[in-house]
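Deliverable D5.2: sample structural annotation.
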Amino acid sequence: NSTQVFTGAAPIKIPLTLHFRAFDSPNAEVRQPIDQLARWTLARQLAANGSIVSAIQNFKQGQGLLKSLLPSQAPQMVALRFGGYTFAPLVIESMTMPMTVPRASDGEPVAVAVQLVLASLTALDAEDWARARRGEPIALFNT
């Protein structure tokens, strides 16, 4: 005889493809939105020195334990509203886009399909799913 034990769940991942197509301005309709997605995907700021020695020195200088051990700034959090559900907060875990795309005479891309993987910061439970259906953030950010 054995007993099944639930040990936890992973954060959710949402793969999706966004299609950008220029009708009037390739820069405004394709390049700029893709650049914004890239900024949201990347860390807002990476620490110049991530060594443990640097962390100890920063802590001694009064920067606090958390800031000393984790000096980089996390990427921007985003939300996804689709089909009556709101998933928030999420981070863009990965972003890929093709290099060979149709381009205008000035070199700007005119049509690009960008693939994203969005990820929640924590696993979700049944009540989090109900919150998403009501358009509310998950419990971690509801307290």
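Annotation notes: Strands lie at 13-21, 78-82, 85-96, 111-120. The CA atoms of residues 2 and 116 lie 40 Å apart.
The annotation will be released with the project's public dataset once the embargo ends.
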